[in-house]
Structures are given as C-alpha cells and as structure tokens.
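Quick one, tokens below:
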C-alpha cells in the first residue's frame, strides 16, 4: 500500500499526516515514479499554511523529487520504466510513489545521485534563471544574495562566482556566515549583528550592487533597495519572513530609478525547451565541480513535520531532503 503525507486543512506542521494515499494509474501523458527522495522547500510550507492556495483538499505537499519510473502512460514515448528522473514542478512529492507529468520530468545524468537531483532541481534551476536570465550575471557585476546559507543561496553564491561576479551575501548566524564563505561568497554579512545596508556600502566603496536577489521578503524590505546602484534591479523571489506589504512603486523612483521583478521558476521553465536547457545547465555546473552540492539535512518523509519546523525556525542550512523507502 502506497503512503503519503496528506494535508486535510491548512495549518501548522502537524497538519501533515502519514497515511495510505494511492495516486492511481498514470494518465496518458504521465509517469508513475517510485521515489527515492523529495526536496524540502519553503513553497511546501506556503501551501501547507495557506500563504499559497492549494488547488484542492486533501492534498500532498511537495514540488521537487527524484526516483525511478515504474510505469508510463499510453501517450508517453520519451521515457520508459527504469529511467531515473527528477522534477521540480510536480504535485505531491511527499509520497512513496507519485504520478508526474512527463513534460515536467528530466532524466538524471550519470554522475548525479538521486538524492542530489531531488534536492537541487527547484533550488538549482531557480539559481539558474536568476543568474543567467533574470539578470545575466558576469564579470564586473556585484550581486547581493540574501539567505546566503540557504538552499538557493549556497548554489547561487558558487554559480555567481563562477560567472565572474563579486558576490555579497547575508546570513543569520556566524555559523551560516562561515558556511556561505565556503561556497563562493566574497563577503557575508551577519544581518543579526550588522546593518547590511551599511556593510554593503562599505564593501563596495559606496558603489553598491547591480542586482539584489531577495527570498526573505518582509525583514529585508525596503532596505534591499538601498543596496542597489542607480537603475539597479531588485529581484524578489520568495518571502521566508513574510510577504512584502504596501510596496509603493514611487520608492523605485526615489531610490534611483530602480527596476523590480517578482519571478518564479515556473515562469522560466514553461516550455520543454526551457526546462531541458535549465536542467542541463544545472547538471553541468554540478558535474564540473563549479557548484558543489552537499546535503546538510536528511529526514525520513514520515518526519516531514519536524523538517518543516526546522525550516521555518531557520535551523537548516543548504540542501534538505526527505528520504523515501
């Protein structure tokens, strides 16, 4: 019997209950995957606590995972049972088995372990579109990345450095500062003990940054805008501390004719070509060693509630996964 973490109503981590949940036979364009691991991400928390609206109840959290194909739908020709696959736009990865749209799955190349793939698909492809497409980072650029010791942050810091940028990060403890400095960052500011706006100004001799990547939200806004050069870009791609309230667009004018965007991974991987290119770029920097991935936290999928508590309590660093089986 197949089991999953099921949510019947929005709530805290205790809202997730491990119980039988059979996803059924795969649809004509779906893959049935026996999962090895699922990624742990704040988007899972947002659906569980109601920040994002779940399409229906009950539902199984989780967008990111990896495993082995066990069956394919009648219209699927690109995948076969036995293929190792990963995905970042699935629904319900906190489960032993899942049906996944073939259009959202990619093959895991040799040299990439299932657990690594499960933990980097959403975070790594987020770093890819942020650094290569939202603002194409290159030599001469100075970037600021909040939550530098988080899952996206550790990948993005290394990748931005690989692309030739000067990379500044923020983190919430001395331990996290040290971790980020080990992953590509030139400078990391402990925002609990230092004013990151003042430190960025000092680090850059007043020149400030070309782009700020902000997944924190309420706690770092509007101070993030003060870290930007004239006509710089503020990229808000998450809200781990809460959503930004009452964003007055006139601030962009007042602080230097700034630009802002609120992108999502799904907006950058909407086509098969975009998904394949993003995944290929990610797997290449990992396989080459330009981006080193380590899994800092592993939880059995049955312990997803504890994983959410740690994530929301900012007790995690880097990549966290839920192991299955």
């Amino acid at each position: 019997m197949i089991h999953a973490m099921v949510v019947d109503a929005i709530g805290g981590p205790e809202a997730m209950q491990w119980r039988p949940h059979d996803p059924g036979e795969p649809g004509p364009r779906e893959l049935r995957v026996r999962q090895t691991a699922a990624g742990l991400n704040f988007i899972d928390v947002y659906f569980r606590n109601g920040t994002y609206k779940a399409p229906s109840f009950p539902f199984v959290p989780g967008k990111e995972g990896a495993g082995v194909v066990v069956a394919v739908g009648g219209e699927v020709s690109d995948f076969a049972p036995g293929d190792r696959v990963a995905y970042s736009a699935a629904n319900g990865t906190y489960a032993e088995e899942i049906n996944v749209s073939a259009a959202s799955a990619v093959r895991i190349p040799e040299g990439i372990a299932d657990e690594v793939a499960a933990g980097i698909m959403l975070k790594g492809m987020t770093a890819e579109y942020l650094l290569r497409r939202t603002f194409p980072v290159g030599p001469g650029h100075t970037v600021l990345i909040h939550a530098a010791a988080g899952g996206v942050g550790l990948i993005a810091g290394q990748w931005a450095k690989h692309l030739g940028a000067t990379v500044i990060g923020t983190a919430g403890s001395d331990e996290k500062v040290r971790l980020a400095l080990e992953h590509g960052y030139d400078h990391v500011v402990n925002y609990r003990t230092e004013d990151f706006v003042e430190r960025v100004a000092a680090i850059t001799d007043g020149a400030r940054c070309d782009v700020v990547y902000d997944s924190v939200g309420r706690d770092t806004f509007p101070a993030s805008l003060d870290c930007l050069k004239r006509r710089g870009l503020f990229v808000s791609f998450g809200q781990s501390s809460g959503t930004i309230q009452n964003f007055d667009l006139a601030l962009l004018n007042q602080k230097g004719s700034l630009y802002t965007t609120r992108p999502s991974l799904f907006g950058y991987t909407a086509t098969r070509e975009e998904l394949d290119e993003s995944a290929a770029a990610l797997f290449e920097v990992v396989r080459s060693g330009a981006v080193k991935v380590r899994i800092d936290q592993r939880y059995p999928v049955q312990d997803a509630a504890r994983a959410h508590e740690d994530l929301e309590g900012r007790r995690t660093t880097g990549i966290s996964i839920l192991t299955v089986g």
